[in-house]
Amino acid sequence: MPGSVRDKIVIQGGGRLKGRVNISGAKNAALPIIAACILTQGTSRIKGIPRQLTDVKLMEELLCFLGLQVNHSGEGVLEICTEKENLVTAPYELVNEMRGSICVLGPLLGSRGKAKVALPGGCVIGQRPIDLHIKGLQTLGAEISFKDGYVVAKADRLKGAEIYLGGAYGSTVLGTCNIMMAATLAEGTTVIESAACEPEVQDLANFLIQAGAKISGVGTNRLIIEGVKELHSVDYQIIPDRIEAGTFMAAAAITRGDVVLENVRLDHLGAVMEKFRDIGVEITQELWGCSVKGGDNILSTSITTLPYPGLPTDMQPQLMSLLSIAQGTSVITEKVFPDRFMHIAELNRMGASIRKEGPSAIVNGVSHLSGAQVTASDLRAGAALVLAGLVAKGTTEISGLHYLDRGYESLEAKFAQLGARIERVQEEV
């Protein structure tokens, strides 16, 4: 019998990155904004969508399954309108690979009064429960049960309430998005305390406001939503992806390169830029983005991930790759997803010297990394392995690309554009 085929990335390390690269729209803003179109009347036009990402493609399929029409009207542009308003089931086969799909729960319940959403999947980076989503929707008056792996929710009309969304590891981003979307059409006023204030949450709020929602406190931990009768269609541009931008900053740093990033919001990257500057990386704002120059030496540092505006957990694996060749010993403490260290074993296969101690990783800098066969365990771990491969001596082969394809658009093409010797190939397994 013929064997199956899988993709892998092959990198010949050692080159210095140089040139310009454009940063795509933010996946973590695109997914809830696409879901929010369930709430709107008419045809909305969303620009800056990273359409090649598998998560985005799945969200498009899910909206079509829920009775919306999704058209591509240009590069990175989606036109979305509702055709059927009686469909409320988000099936397992469209949800199991993407945690962001839980974002349809709030808008379905808010606009259609019912929702049946399969419990989501996604990257395995530790426990990521949806209990705060459920608690918030119940506080708004929803009746919720669990059956056969689905969340089943119903409410004749949601009613505004005061909701606290703080969890053991900080605010919930998707939970804030879900409750905010549901509350826009609820009766009365909703106050969300300990709301997430990430740029992607702010982008969703700004989309909803442009569509006619009444939301104040955007960018703070206290959101006030006054319910309205309906939302209308909008023409909207989503923000650039700050994690993709941070990943390319790390790539420039680890290769001691000189890279210009276009379409970047540096005001979304304050904690990241501060840490890069601490370790000897030069970042300069330019008209359309920023330039990033790696120093001759990478300095060790201490890092603690925190909810925004702290250092994002989604940059932790990439920074670990960078610090693996720094001078001295670095300490990385994970306070968002304490189990997010599966990439340590793969980096150590490449010659890194990293050990886990509770919620922290101790990174002893080494003189160089060596190419090896490695496997991505999640989206950002895959990015960390690509960065390690760019600087490693010899050849690195990375499997598990379905994770990378969830969050990076044309990753190998963008790195090749900067001079990396990188390609995607197929192999029989």
Structure at a glance:
With 429 residues, this protein is α/β, with parallel strands linked by helices. The protein contains 14 helices and 28 strands. A hairpin with a 5-residue loop joins β15 and β16.
How does the SSE layout of this entry go?
Layout: E1 5-12, E2 18-22, H1 27-36, E3 40-41, E4 44-47, H2 54-65, E5 68-74, E6 77-82, E7 89-90, H3 92-95, H4 105-112, E8 114-118, H5 131-139, E9 143-147, E10 150-154, E11 162-164, E12 166-167, E13 170-171, H6 173-183, E14 189-193, H7 199-210, E15 214-216, E16 222-226, E17 231-232, E18 235-237, H8 242-254, E19 258-262, H9 270-278, E20 282-286, E21 289-293, E22 302-305, H10 316-323, E23 329-334, H11 343-349, E24 353-357, E25 360-364, E26 373-375, H12 379-391, E27 395-399, H13 401-407, H14 411-417, E28 421-428
Parallel strand pairs: 2-19, 3-17, 4-18, 7-8, 11-14, 22-23, 26-27
Antiparallel strand pairs: 1-27, 1-28, 4-6, 5-6, 8-10, 9-10, 12-13, 14-16, 15-16, 19-21, 20-21, 23-25, 24-25
Helix pairs in contact: 1-2, 1-7, 4-6, 5-6, 6-7, 8-10, 8-12, 10-12, 12-13
User: What overall geometry do the principal axes of the alpha carbons give?
Assistant: globular
Our measurement of the CA-to-CA distance between the termini, rounded to an integer number of angstroms, reads 12 Å
Continuous helix count: 14
Number of strands: 28
Q: Please state the second-level CATH architecture of the largest domain.
A: Alpha-beta prism
CATH class placement of the largest domain: Alpha Beta
Strand content: 25-35%
For the largest sheet, list the strands in their spatial order. Answer: 26-27-1-28
